[in-house]
Amino acid sequence: MDSALLIAELKRVSVLMRDDMPIAQLEELEAQFKSLVCQLIDAFPNDPAIAIEIARIQKDMGLLRKYKSYGVKCCTPLGYSIFLLNEGEGFSFQNHLEFKVELFYVLSVLSGGYVFICTADEWNQVFDEQKFAEWFAGSASQDYDAFKKYPQLGDVVKIDRTGIVHTAIGCILEEYANVSTDMVQRLFDQNKGKAIPAEFTKRFVENALSQLMFPNVTLSIDSEVVLHQSNEFVASRVSIEPQQSRSIECENDFVSLYVTDGEGELVLSDSSLDPICLAKGDPVLLVPHSRWRLNNMSDKLLQYSCLRVPKQQALK
User: Fold this and answer.
1) Span 169-186, mean pLDDT?
2) I need a surface site. Which of 11, 18, 254, 267 has the fewest CB within 10 A?
């Protein structure tokens, strides 16, 4: 298949994914999207036209919306997500059976919100399903309260090995991960059988995302705060001062950018192709071996979240 046909198919799939649909249906389309991107960069490496088309398609598609009873996962196919959790609700109490690195960056904590973290051994020593259900419903228990933490804006929570039981309840979070698929054992699933709220729609998500406030990175020019750096991925928050630029070298990595404030112009280096205009709420996917420059043409700070995943691990 030639590049034009593959790009046309990628656009078709991306347009379908803009609509509201059940998670299973969306993830089937997401798998097609990932496969098509991989086919394009394998068959046409270092092609600037392919690189900029993929970036534009991701921008136009926006964040995917996965509706759950306890909140909405807004995500890119690479492994960057924003979780809009309901007050008093959140993920099941879970453990990774396969190696996966997750980093949660706290954007907001609703009333009573918390993070629960313990080792699998600690969990097995104290867990009793009836007592735990009563504790989750509001009963006191020192055994379980000991693993409850109350995060603040800008806190980082990292799950970087198997055998860690964890959840987040009543928080708004960014998640950075080396893979975008679920790989969990649900040890206590308080959400089982619950319906998805009727108000969860595309309009609801767009309104919620537009009101999100992200912590300022720093006030220094061309600054980057690295939240995590390992062989699995690099997660960072970046700011660009007004009328300044920043180079983005993808090397052997896929790079996902999500603009959290301001606006700018994304230019593919050494290319005469038209730039991509970016504003708050826009995501782009940058492919390996591409080189870019992000220009802040405004009089306001431009800030974005960045996830960098090695090609051999990405889009799985």
Assistant:
1) 86
2) 18
